[in-house]
Amino acid sequence: METTRTLGRSGIEVSALGFGCWAIGGEWQDTDGQPLGWGRVDDEESVRAVRRAVDLGVTFFDTADTYGAGHSERVLGRALGKRRADVVVATKWGNVFDEDTRTRTGGDASPAHLRRALTASLDRLGTDYVDLYQFHLSDADPEQAALLRDACEELVREGLIRAYAWSTDDPARAAVFAEGPHCAAVQHTLNVLQDAPAMVRLCEEAGLASINRSPLAMGLLTGKRRARQPLEAGDIRSRPPAWLQGFGDGSGADPEWLARIDAVRDVLTSEGRTLGQGALAWLWARSPRTIPIPGFRSVAQAEENAAALEKGALTDAQLTEVDRLLGR
Ligand SMILES: NC(=O)c1ccc[n+]([C@@H]2O[C@H](COP(=O)([O-])OP(=O)(O)OC[C@H]3O[C@@H](n4cnc5c(N)ncnc54)[C@H](OP(=O)(O)O)[C@@H]3O)[C@@H](O)[C@H]2O)c1
Protein backbone atom coordinates (compact mmCIF):
# COMPACT_ATOMS: atom_id res chain seq x y z
CA MET A 1 0.00 0.00 0.00
CA GLU A 2 1.11 3.57 -0.70
CA THR A 3 1.90 5.20 2.64
CA THR A 4 0.57 8.56 1.45
CA ARG A 5 -2.88 9.68 0.32
CA THR A 6 -4.22 12.93 -1.12
CA LEU A 7 -6.43 15.29 0.82
CA GLY A 8 -9.21 15.16 -1.75
CA ARG A 9 -9.28 17.68 -4.54
CA SER A 10 -6.80 19.97 -2.77
CA GLY A 11 -3.94 17.81 -4.04
CA ILE A 12 -2.28 18.17 -0.60
CA GLU A 13 -0.36 14.96 0.11
CA VAL A 14 -0.48 13.50 3.64
CA SER A 15 0.61 10.27 5.29
CA ALA A 16 -2.24 7.75 4.92
CA LEU A 17 -2.46 7.90 8.71
CA GLY A 18 -3.21 11.11 10.60
CA PHE A 19 -3.00 11.61 14.36
CA GLY A 20 -6.08 12.82 16.30
CA CYS A 21 -5.32 15.33 19.06
CA TRP A 22 -8.54 15.29 21.12
CA ALA A 23 -7.19 13.26 24.06
CA ILE A 24 -4.01 15.34 24.38
CA GLY A 25 -6.16 18.41 25.11
CA GLY A 26 -6.61 17.01 28.62
CA GLU A 27 -9.62 17.65 30.82
CA TRP A 28 -12.41 20.09 29.92
CA GLN A 29 -16.17 20.06 30.41
CA ASP A 30 -19.60 21.43 29.55
CA THR A 31 -21.37 24.06 31.68
CA ASP A 32 -23.22 21.26 33.51
CA GLY A 33 -19.99 19.46 34.43
CA GLN A 34 -20.24 16.81 31.69
CA PRO A 35 -16.64 15.77 30.91
CA LEU A 36 -15.70 16.45 27.27
CA GLY A 37 -12.07 15.31 27.37
CA TRP A 38 -10.37 11.98 27.95
CA GLY A 39 -9.26 12.63 31.50
CA ARG A 40 -5.82 13.68 32.67
CA VAL A 41 -2.85 13.69 30.31
CA ASP A 42 0.85 14.43 30.69
CA ASP A 43 1.72 17.31 28.32
CA GLU A 44 5.39 16.36 28.14
CA GLU A 45 4.44 12.83 27.05
CA SER A 46 2.02 14.30 24.48
CA VAL A 47 4.84 16.45 23.05
CA ARG A 48 7.16 13.44 22.84
CA ALA A 49 4.41 11.38 21.17
CA VAL A 50 3.78 14.03 18.48
CA ARG A 51 7.52 14.31 17.75
CA ARG A 52 7.89 10.53 17.62
CA ALA A 53 4.99 10.35 15.16
CA VAL A 54 6.69 12.88 12.87
CA ASP A 55 9.94 10.87 13.08
CA LEU A 56 7.96 7.79 12.02
CA GLY A 57 6.55 9.51 8.92
CA VAL A 58 3.21 10.87 10.14
CA THR A 59 2.58 14.19 8.38
CA PHE A 60 -1.07 14.86 9.23
CA PHE A 61 -2.44 16.09 12.59
CA ASP A 62 -6.09 16.76 13.43
CA THR A 63 -7.09 18.97 16.35
CA ALA A 64 -9.85 21.45 17.24
CA ASP A 65 -9.89 24.81 19.00
CA THR A 66 -12.22 23.39 21.62
CA TYR A 67 -10.16 20.27 22.60
CA GLY A 68 -9.05 21.04 26.13
CA ALA A 69 -10.48 24.56 25.53
CA GLY A 70 -7.47 25.58 23.42
CA HIS A 71 -4.95 23.31 25.15
CA SER A 72 -4.63 20.70 22.39
CA GLU A 73 -3.73 23.37 19.82
CA ARG A 74 -1.13 24.84 22.17
CA VAL A 75 0.47 21.44 22.86
CA LEU A 76 0.47 20.52 19.15
CA GLY A 77 1.98 23.88 18.15
CA ARG A 78 4.72 23.52 20.79
CA ALA A 79 5.47 19.92 19.80
CA LEU A 80 5.79 20.75 16.10
CA GLY A 81 7.82 23.92 16.46
CA LYS A 82 9.81 24.52 13.26
CA ARG A 83 8.65 21.19 11.84
CA ARG A 84 5.20 22.72 11.37
CA ALA A 85 6.21 23.48 7.76
CA ASP A 86 6.78 19.75 7.13
CA VAL A 87 3.30 18.65 8.20
CA VAL A 88 -0.35 19.27 7.39
CA VAL A 89 -2.40 20.70 10.27
CA ALA A 90 -6.18 20.40 10.45
CA THR A 91 -8.19 22.17 13.14
CA LYS A 92 -11.86 23.02 13.72
CA TRP A 93 -14.12 25.92 14.67
CA GLY A 94 -17.74 26.35 15.75
CA ASN A 95 -17.65 25.73 19.50
CA VAL A 96 -17.37 28.56 22.00
CA PHE A 97 -15.37 27.98 25.18
CA ASP A 98 -13.64 29.62 28.09
CA GLU A 99 -9.91 28.89 28.17
CA ASP A 100 -9.48 29.83 31.83
CA THR A 101 -12.17 27.52 33.21
CA ARG A 102 -11.73 24.94 30.40
CA THR A 103 -15.47 25.00 29.77
CA ARG A 104 -17.43 24.72 26.53
CA THR A 105 -20.15 27.36 26.71
CA GLY A 106 -21.95 26.88 23.38
CA GLY A 107 -21.68 27.02 19.61
CA ASP A 108 -21.57 29.84 17.02
CA ALA A 109 -22.20 29.27 13.31
CA SER A 110 -21.80 32.89 12.24
CA PRO A 111 -19.20 34.01 9.66
CA ALA A 112 -17.97 36.62 12.18
CA HIS A 113 -17.15 33.89 14.69
CA LEU A 114 -15.38 31.88 11.96
CA ARG A 115 -12.87 34.69 11.47
CA ARG A 116 -12.40 35.30 15.20
CA ALA A 117 -11.91 31.58 15.84
CA LEU A 118 -9.32 31.26 13.06
CA THR A 119 -7.27 34.17 14.41
CA ALA A 120 -7.25 32.56 17.87
CA SER A 121 -6.31 29.11 16.50
CA LEU A 122 -3.41 30.54 14.47
CA ASP A 123 -2.13 32.18 17.62
CA ARG A 124 -2.35 29.03 19.75
CA LEU A 125 -0.83 26.84 17.04
CA GLY A 126 1.95 29.36 16.42
CA THR A 127 1.44 29.40 12.66
CA ASP A 128 0.14 31.79 10.02
CA TYR A 129 -2.03 29.33 8.07
CA VAL A 130 -4.20 26.26 8.64
CA ASP A 131 -4.00 23.53 6.00
CA LEU A 132 -7.49 22.14 6.52
CA TYR A 133 -10.10 24.13 8.46
CA GLN A 134 -13.12 22.11 9.57
CA PHE A 135 -16.58 23.18 10.72
CA HIS A 136 -17.17 21.34 14.00
CA LEU A 137 -20.98 21.75 14.48
CA SER A 138 -22.05 18.48 12.88
CA ASP A 139 -25.82 19.14 12.92
CA ALA A 140 -25.79 22.84 11.95
CA ASP A 141 -28.38 24.30 9.60
CA PRO A 142 -27.31 23.62 5.97
CA GLU A 143 -28.35 27.10 4.76
CA GLN A 144 -26.19 28.71 7.40
CA ALA A 145 -23.38 26.31 6.50
CA ALA A 146 -23.54 27.50 2.86
CA LEU A 147 -22.63 31.00 4.13
CA LEU A 148 -19.69 29.52 6.05
CA ARG A 149 -18.55 27.60 2.97
CA ASP A 150 -18.45 30.86 1.01
CA ALA A 151 -16.60 32.56 3.89
CA CYS A 152 -14.04 29.73 3.78
CA GLU A 153 -13.48 30.37 0.06
CA GLU A 154 -12.63 33.95 1.03
CA LEU A 155 -10.13 32.69 3.66
CA VAL A 156 -8.49 30.51 0.98
CA ARG A 157 -8.12 33.57 -1.26
CA GLU A 158 -6.49 35.43 1.64
CA GLY A 159 -4.01 32.59 2.17
CA LEU A 160 -5.13 31.95 5.77
CA ILE A 161 -6.35 28.40 5.04
CA ARG A 162 -5.51 26.02 2.20
CA ALA A 163 -8.71 23.95 2.18
CA TYR A 164 -11.76 23.27 4.34
CA ALA A 165 -14.21 20.52 5.35
CA TRP A 166 -17.27 19.82 7.48
CA SER A 167 -17.03 17.39 10.37
CA THR A 168 -20.42 15.68 10.08
CA ASP A 169 -21.96 12.22 9.74
CA ASP A 170 -24.73 13.48 7.45
CA PRO A 171 -23.98 13.04 3.70
CA ALA A 172 -26.57 15.72 2.76
CA ARG A 173 -24.76 18.28 4.90
CA ALA A 174 -21.36 17.17 3.58
CA ALA A 175 -22.71 17.67 0.03
CA VAL A 176 -23.50 21.33 0.80
CA PHE A 177 -19.85 21.98 1.66
CA ALA A 178 -18.68 19.86 -1.30
CA GLU A 179 -20.10 22.50 -3.66
CA GLY A 180 -17.21 24.80 -2.71
CA PRO A 181 -14.16 24.35 -4.97
CA HIS A 182 -11.69 24.27 -2.05
CA CYS A 183 -13.69 21.83 0.08
CA ALA A 184 -11.25 18.90 0.31
CA ALA A 185 -12.76 16.40 2.75
CA VAL A 186 -15.44 15.25 5.15
CA GLN A 187 -14.51 14.21 8.66
CA HIS A 188 -16.88 11.48 9.83
CA THR A 189 -17.15 8.42 12.05
CA LEU A 190 -15.91 5.24 10.37
CA ASN A 191 -14.51 2.07 11.91
CA VAL A 192 -14.90 -1.71 11.61
CA LEU A 193 -18.01 -1.64 13.80
CA GLN A 194 -19.54 1.55 12.40
CA ASP A 195 -19.57 1.51 8.60
CA ALA A 196 -20.89 4.55 6.70
CA PRO A 197 -21.54 3.44 3.08
CA ALA A 198 -23.43 6.57 1.96
CA MET A 199 -20.67 8.89 3.20
CA VAL A 200 -17.86 6.82 1.66
CA ARG A 201 -19.77 6.83 -1.66
CA LEU A 202 -20.14 10.62 -1.51
CA CYS A 203 -16.38 11.01 -0.90
CA GLU A 204 -15.56 8.76 -3.84
CA GLU A 205 -17.99 10.50 -6.19
CA ALA A 206 -17.13 14.07 -5.15
CA GLY A 207 -13.37 13.48 -4.91
CA LEU A 208 -13.19 14.27 -1.19
CA ALA A 209 -10.94 12.69 1.42
CA SER A 210 -12.85 10.62 3.99
CA ILE A 211 -11.13 11.57 7.25
CA ASN A 212 -12.07 8.88 9.75
CA ARG A 213 -12.63 9.93 13.34
CA SER A 214 -12.94 7.32 16.11
CA PRO A 215 -11.15 4.75 13.90
CA LEU A 216 -10.45 2.64 17.00
CA ALA A 217 -14.07 3.03 18.28
CA MET A 218 -12.72 5.33 21.02
CA GLY A 219 -10.19 2.75 22.14
CA LEU A 220 -12.45 -0.34 22.08
CA LEU A 221 -10.82 -1.67 18.92
CA THR A 222 -7.46 -1.91 20.66
CA GLY A 223 -8.93 -4.78 22.67
CA LYS A 224 -7.77 -3.47 26.04
CA ARG A 225 -11.19 -2.56 27.47
CA ARG A 226 -13.31 -5.10 29.32
CA ALA A 227 -16.96 -5.06 30.32
CA ARG A 228 -17.62 -3.44 33.70
CA GLN A 229 -14.11 -1.94 33.78
CA PRO A 230 -14.88 1.62 34.88
CA LEU A 231 -13.16 4.60 33.30
CA GLU A 232 -11.56 7.45 35.18
CA ALA A 233 -13.92 10.27 36.27
CA GLY A 234 -13.19 13.21 33.94
CA ASP A 235 -13.06 10.89 30.93
CA ILE A 236 -16.01 11.45 28.56
CA ARG A 237 -16.37 7.66 28.25
CA SER A 238 -17.22 7.44 31.97
CA ARG A 239 -20.37 9.52 31.39
CA PRO A 240 -21.16 8.99 27.69
CA PRO A 241 -23.41 11.60 26.06
CA ALA A 242 -26.21 10.23 23.84
CA TRP A 243 -24.05 10.31 20.66
CA LEU A 244 -21.20 8.31 22.18
CA GLN A 245 -21.68 4.60 21.56
CA GLY A 246 -19.91 1.48 22.81
CA PHE A 247 -19.60 2.42 26.48
CA GLY A 248 -23.20 1.74 27.63
CA ASP A 249 -24.12 3.81 30.67
CA GLY A 250 -20.47 4.52 31.48
CA SER A 251 -19.83 1.50 33.70
CA GLY A 252 -17.39 0.08 31.12
CA ALA A 253 -17.28 -1.22 27.56
CA ASP A 254 -20.60 -2.41 26.10
CA PRO A 255 -20.53 -6.28 26.10
CA GLU A 256 -22.34 -6.39 22.76
CA TRP A 257 -19.57 -4.29 21.15
CA LEU A 258 -16.92 -6.50 22.74
CA ALA A 259 -18.64 -9.59 21.29
CA ARG A 260 -18.54 -8.10 17.79
CA ILE A 261 -14.84 -7.29 18.25
CA ASP A 262 -14.21 -10.90 19.29
CA ALA A 263 -15.97 -12.07 16.12
CA VAL A 264 -13.50 -10.23 13.84
CA ARG A 265 -10.37 -10.51 16.00
CA ASP A 266 -8.71 -13.28 13.98
CA VAL A 267 -9.11 -11.49 10.65
CA LEU A 268 -7.87 -8.16 12.06
CA THR A 269 -4.84 -9.68 13.80
CA SER A 270 -3.67 -11.62 10.74
CA GLU A 271 -0.14 -11.03 9.36
CA GLY A 272 1.16 -10.11 12.81
CA ARG A 273 -1.00 -7.03 13.27
CA THR A 274 -2.18 -5.93 16.70
CA LEU A 275 -5.97 -5.55 16.92
CA GLY A 276 -5.71 -1.75 16.64
CA GLN A 277 -3.43 -2.02 13.61
CA GLY A 278 -5.98 -4.38 12.06
CA ALA A 279 -8.73 -1.81 12.63
CA LEU A 280 -6.66 0.77 10.71
CA ALA A 281 -5.90 -1.81 7.98
CA TRP A 282 -9.67 -2.33 7.57
CA LEU A 283 -10.13 1.41 6.99
CA TRP A 284 -7.44 1.60 4.30
CA ALA A 285 -9.04 -1.35 2.52
CA ARG A 286 -12.50 0.23 2.78
CA SER A 287 -11.76 2.94 0.17
CA PRO A 288 -8.79 4.64 -1.49
CA ARG A 289 -10.18 7.90 -0.06
CA THR A 290 -9.97 7.04 3.67
CA ILE A 291 -7.47 8.62 6.06
CA PRO A 292 -7.86 7.30 9.65
CA ILE A 293 -6.87 9.68 12.48
CA PRO A 294 -6.48 7.57 15.64
CA GLY A 295 -6.18 9.44 18.93
CA PHE A 296 -3.19 8.80 21.22
CA ARG A 297 -1.95 9.74 24.66
CA SER A 298 1.56 8.24 24.83
CA VAL A 299 4.70 7.51 22.82
CA ALA A 300 3.87 3.78 22.98
CA GLN A 301 0.44 4.33 21.40
CA ALA A 302 1.97 6.63 18.76
CA GLU A 303 4.55 3.98 17.84
CA GLU A 304 2.04 1.13 17.62
CA ASN A 305 -0.38 3.17 15.51
CA ALA A 306 2.31 4.54 13.19
CA ALA A 307 3.66 1.01 12.64
CA ALA A 308 0.31 0.08 11.07
CA LEU A 309 1.35 2.05 7.98
CA GLU A 310 4.05 -0.47 7.03
CA LYS A 311 1.66 -3.40 7.44
CA GLY A 312 -0.78 -1.82 4.97
CA ALA A 313 -4.41 -2.57 4.13
CA LEU A 314 -6.47 -5.75 4.55
CA THR A 315 -7.24 -7.63 1.34
CA ASP A 316 -10.63 -7.45 -0.39
CA ALA A 317 -11.29 -11.04 0.71
CA GLN A 318 -10.66 -10.08 4.34
CA LEU A 319 -12.99 -7.10 3.97
CA THR A 320 -15.73 -9.41 2.71
CA GLU A 321 -15.02 -11.84 5.55
CA VAL A 322 -15.41 -9.05 8.15
CA ASP A 323 -18.80 -8.13 6.66
CA ARG A 324 -19.88 -11.78 6.77
CA LEU A 325 -18.76 -12.20 10.39
CA LEU A 326 -20.64 -9.06 11.43
CA GLY A 327 -23.76 -10.09 9.50
CA ARG A 328 -23.59 -7.17 7.09
N1 LIG B 1 -16.68 15.77 16.10
C1 LIG B 1 -15.47 15.58 15.67
O1 LIG B 1 -15.03 16.26 14.80
C2 LIG B 1 -14.65 14.46 16.24
C3 LIG B 1 -15.22 13.50 17.10
C4 LIG B 1 -14.43 12.45 17.54
C5 LIG B 1 -13.10 12.39 17.19
N2 LIG B 1 -12.54 13.33 16.37
C6 LIG B 1 -11.12 13.26 15.96
O2 LIG B 1 -10.78 11.91 15.71
C7 LIG B 1 -9.67 11.53 16.53
C8 LIG B 1 -9.73 10.06 16.87
O3 LIG B 1 -10.99 9.67 17.36
P1 LIG B 1 -11.25 9.35 18.89
O4 LIG B 1 -10.28 10.15 19.71
O5 LIG B 1 -12.70 9.51 19.10
O6 LIG B 1 -10.98 7.83 19.12
P2 LIG B 1 -10.08 6.63 18.55
O7 LIG B 1 -9.04 7.13 17.66
O8 LIG B 1 -11.05 5.65 18.03
O9 LIG B 1 -9.44 6.08 19.90
C9 LIG B 1 -8.37 6.78 20.46
C10 LIG B 1 -8.06 6.29 21.86
O10 LIG B 1 -7.76 4.90 21.87
C11 LIG B 1 -6.70 4.65 22.80
N3 LIG B 1 -5.55 4.18 22.00
C12 LIG B 1 -5.02 4.74 20.87
N4 LIG B 1 -4.01 4.02 20.38
C13 LIG B 1 -3.86 2.97 21.21
C14 LIG B 1 -2.98 1.87 21.23
N5 LIG B 1 -2.05 1.73 20.28
N6 LIG B 1 -3.12 0.96 22.24
C15 LIG B 1 -4.06 1.11 23.18
N7 LIG B 1 -4.93 2.14 23.22
C16 LIG B 1 -4.84 3.07 22.24
C17 LIG B 1 -6.40 5.97 23.49
O11 LIG B 1 -7.25 6.15 24.63
P3 LIG B 1 -7.05 5.44 26.06
O12 LIG B 1 -5.60 5.13 26.21
O13 LIG B 1 -7.54 6.43 27.03
O14 LIG B 1 -7.96 4.24 25.98
C18 LIG B 1 -6.84 6.96 22.45
O15 LIG B 1 -7.15 8.23 22.95
C19 LIG B 1 -9.76 12.49 17.72
O16 LIG B 1 -8.53 12.59 18.42
C20 LIG B 1 -10.15 13.76 17.02
O17 LIG B 1 -9.00 14.35 16.41
C21 LIG B 1 -13.31 14.35 15.89
From TrEMBL:
It comes from Streptomyces coeruleorubidus. Residues 17-325 form the NADP-dependent oxidoreductase domain. Gene3D superfamilies: NADP-dependent oxidoreductase domain. GO terms for molecular function: oxidoreductase activity. It comes from the Bacteria. This is Aldo/keto reductase. It holds the Pfam family Aldo_ket_red. Its EC number is 1.1.1.-. Keywords: Oxidoreductase. The keyword Oxidoreductase applies.
